[in-house]
Amino acid sequence: MTNNSIIKKRWISLYVENQIGVLAKISGLFSGKSYNLDSLTVGETEDSTISRMTIGVTSDDITFEQIKKQLNRSIEVIKVVDITDIPINMKEILYVKISFCTEKDKEEIFRIAQVFDLKIVDYNKNTILIESLQTEVKNNDIIKLLNNVFINRLEVVRGGSVAIEAISMTDR
Amino acid sequence: MQVKGTEIFVKALKEEGVDILFGYPGGQAIDLFDALYDQNEIEVIMPRHEQALVHAADGYARSTGKVGVCLVTSGPGATNLVTGIATANYDSVPLVCFTGQVPQNLLGNDAFQEVDIVGITRSICKYAVTVRDRLELPRIIKEAFYIARTGRPGPVVVDLPKDVQQAMGSDEYPSEVSIRSYKPNEGVHMGQIKRAITILNKAKKPLFLIGGGVNIAHANKEMTKLVDITGVPIITTIMGKGAISTKHPLYMGNIGIHGSYAANHAVSECDVLFSIGTRFNDRITGKISEFAKNATIIHIDIDSASISKNIAVDIPIVADAKLAIEKLIELVVPVKAGEWVEQVRGWKEKYPINMDKHNGMTPEKIIRTINDMYKNLIVVTDVGQNQLWTTQYIELDENKQLLTSGGLGTMGYGFPAAIGAKLGNPKKDVICITGDGGMQMNIQEMATAVAMELPLIICIFNNGYLGNVRQWQEMFYNKRYSSTCLRYRKSCNRDCGNCNKACPKYTPDFIKLAESYDAYGIRVTKEEEIVNAFLYANSNKEGPTIIEFIIEREVNVLPMVPGGKPLNEMILDC
User: Fold this and answer.
1) Distance between CA B429 and CA B423 in Å, rounded?
2) In A, what residues contact B, Cβ < 8 A?
3) Could you tell me where the DSSP H helices lie in A14-60?
4) Which pLDDT value is given to residue A2?
5) Considering the domain A8-82 in this protein, what is its CATH number?
6) Are the folds of B190-350 and B363-550 the same?
7) What does the buried/exposed string (b/e) look like for B194-227 if buried means 16 or more CB atoms within 10 Å of the residue's CB?
8) How do the domains of chain A map onto residue ranges?
9) Does residue B509 sit at the A interface (CB-CB below 8 Å)?
10) Cα–Cα distance between B9 and B15 in angstroms, integer?
11) Backbone dihedral region of B470: left (phi > 0), alpha (psi from -120 to 50 degrees) or beta?
12) pTM (predicted TM-score)
């Protein structure tokens, strides 16, 4: 086995029993074993007895192998799918509320929204609420940009990524 | 027919073949104990503390191969199990631990004796579940036993709210179990087996490294056959000791920080390391980058997560040890490694482990006496020097078994586990080897051993110290014996540095303690008295006998690999 120690972002799609305590079990596994958990989303699937998690981790190859094995051996885990290097559709919801906006600010926000494909979902005299449905990386960029322009005026909440395997192999 | 939850609970235990249950009652378990009162098929043993209870169930399970069953109440009853559950989890011991729980209408209310035991034990057991519906009770118990004993065995916690215990429901207990998310590996990948054999056959310096997995799979006969056919030398971890007779000419001893010179050097110099059922724990690898540096490593384990966790493996094989070894036996041929075998054997002869430099009564002499006097034996150790000496000097074969807390290293394990082992094996001699520290961690179990009329022998190696830590303090902490002297009194000079005649009397007096429990105790101070002490203990068939061996206070376990060093850099003497 090669000792590949490249640390990179990886994604797992995890099928688990939809039962009380399973989320605690999975998140506890990450904290207990000091794995670097970046994001975890969970929701019911088409089968109400199964939940599906999308888990983002940053790790080297060896640790990632161990993470997958540890998940697999958990009794409540039905299937572990490594989606790091396969075609997937993945999005994260992001809300950004920007306060103390002047008219000029608002114009700038509308321009940014147009360029970055953001939705203005609510606003009043001096506050604007933006919704972004993008990849995690793109959302990072958007937050960075907005933070640069509207320092200390942002309120950010993001949902964590949700992913599903692509149908067409070229879709990403 | 409609029956109460407690009735289906008793029926389930019977269907699972439970003959002994280790139980301690309490408010939220009282209904379950009431249901057990009317039957004779399951013997209920009541240890005097829940921690000892779970260790006893563990000793029973390890020594019989059956599932150990615990029943305790909610709250403190449940939390007292924690150390024992973690102990069993580390060493892959099948347990099902039932905990009483407050009724569901009180759950989350911080009710009297309510704890979230499923949450507490989640990371230290194989599976934990609260039964929330009487309907699910039979299925969950069935699954609990199945999960505990299959795959890599381990402890399962089943939390039973009182309302579920009392609710009426079906009296049917399922005969089949199917869990979609749990399918233990039952096959062997023949391609990988063949690849492993090809590599083994080309080896010039092959070596078997065997862990506890082979003992758990009861593959001892098969393992011996594999060694006999191939002629490859074999070393074990302490959990693997006994996988093959320790008298076998190709057995080279234990590997690890207190392993034999031959074993540690063999693993450092081998070119093919064929390992089965070991986790490559840090106690056996030493400095990881130097471990089996020149070797191609083959690893068979039932738990895929144990493969390539600590040591990168070239040929991984996920399988039950027994199944895999059976397949290997069909295909292996003698490996031409005569020179290598002679080399390893030479090390073994030149550097045996012994305590020859110490005069008088040594732990080695006591353990060798046990080797000579007992033919059908279960030895149960506590943790610390007593354990390490035992793993070094005890001889094992198909009629002798060693039980020890290898993974968690739980002090207080030995004595209650010996009680469990004796209960499960009334016809075998059971000897507990413990220290004066560890014995005091579950000393109250004298009452259980006396009550159950268990003729087991408790050897206390009394040096008045927490000896293993003291040894580290001597070797690496400039003899600063911080909190390790068991003879310490407030009036002592803290930095006395050594013991002397003026030391306070030791507390307790183990002989008087035995008497107070209506048991026998005998104190041995001289080498010549060892045999007679065991003869005396053997003659006591009615209950436990304590043999207190007053050993030299500052004796070390050697050889030793200091922390972070490669295995072949051993301290042989100091």
Assistant:
1) 11
2) 1, 3, 16-17, 20-21, 24-25, 28-29, 32, 62, 65-66, 69-70, 72-73, 75-78
3) 22-32
4) 45
5) 3.30.70.260
6) yes
7) eebbebbbebebbbbbbbbbbbbbebbebbbbbb
8) 8-82, 88-165
9) no
10) 10
11) alpha
12) 0.96
Chain B stretch 302-341, residues whose beta carbon is closer than 8 A to a beta carbon of chain A: 303-305, 307-309, 312-314
Name the DSSP letter for residue B369. Answer: H
Please list, residue by residue across A113-124, b when 16 or more beta carbons sit within 10 angstroms of its beta carbon and e when fewer do: beebebeeeebe
Q: B372: alpha, beta or left, given left = phi > 0 and alpha = psi -120 to 50?
A: alpha
Q: Answer whether B250's CB lies under 8 Å from B233's CB.
A: yes
Pairing of strands B315-318, B296-301: parallel
CB pairs under 8 A between A and B: 49
Among the partner residues B179, B181, B305, nearest to A69 by beta-carbon distance: B305
B-chain residues within 8 Å CB-CB of A66?
Answer: 305, 308-309
Topology (CATH level 3) of domain B190-350? Rossmann fold (3.40.50)
User: Which CATH class name applies to B363-550?
Assistant: alpha beta
- A88-165: CATH topology: Alpha-Beta Plaits (3.30.70)
CA–CA separation, B444 vs B435, rounded Å? 15
* Residue A63 token pair: 């640790």
Q: What is the pLDDT of residues A116-132, one digit of tens each?
A: 999 999 999 999 999 99
Helix (H) or strand (E) holding B50: helix B50-64
Residue of chain A nearest B307, judged by CA positions? A66
For β-strands B2-4 and B168-170, DSSP reports them as antiparallel
- What residue type is B18 in one-letter code? V
Chain A residues near residue B308 by CB distance under 8 angstroms? 1, 62, 65-66
Q: What share of chain B is helix, strand, coil (3-state, %, to 5)?
A: 40, 20, 45
Q: Which of A51, A75, A79 should one mutate to test binding to chain B, selecting the residue with the greatest count of B CBs within 10 A?
A: A75
The H or E element containing residue B229 is helix B220-230
Out of A3, A21, A77, the one facing B181 most closely (by C-beta) is A77
The domain locations on chain B are: 2-170, 190-350, 363-550
pLDDT of A92 > 90? The answer is yes
Q: Is B139 on the interface with A (CB under 8 A)?
A: no
CA B184 to chain A, closest CA, distance in angstroms equals 9
Which DSSP string corresponds to B128-188? EEE---GGGHHHHHHHHHHHHHSSS--EEEEEEEHHHHHSEEE----S----TT-------
Look at the domain B2-170 and name its fold: Rossmann fold (3.40.50)
Structure tokens, B570: 């051993």
**What are the backbone dihedrals phi and psi of residue B401, each rounded to the nearest 5 degrees, phi first?**
-130, 145
Report how far residue B143's alpha carbon sits from residue B134's, in angstroms, rounded to the nearest whole number.
15
Which residue has tokens 């120690």?
A5
Q: Which of B181, B279, B288, B313 to mutate to test the interface with A (most CBs of A within 10 A)?
A: B181
Q: Which of A29, A65, A78 is closest, CB to CB, to B308? A: A65
B182, B304, B307: residue with CB nearest A75: B182
**Secondary structure of residue A27 in the 3-state scheme:** helix
Beta-carbon-side half-sphere exposure of residue B346 (alpha carbons within 13 Å): 6
- As a whole-number percent, the residues of chain B with pLDDT over 90 amount to 94
Q: Buried b / exposed e across B421-460, counting CB within 10 Å, b at 16+? A: bbbbbeebbbbbbbbbbbbbbbbebbbbbbbbebbbbbbb
ipTM of the complex, rounded to two decimals? 0.91
pLDDT by residue (tens digit) across B205-252? 999 999 999 999 999 999 999 999 999 999 999 999 999 999 999 999
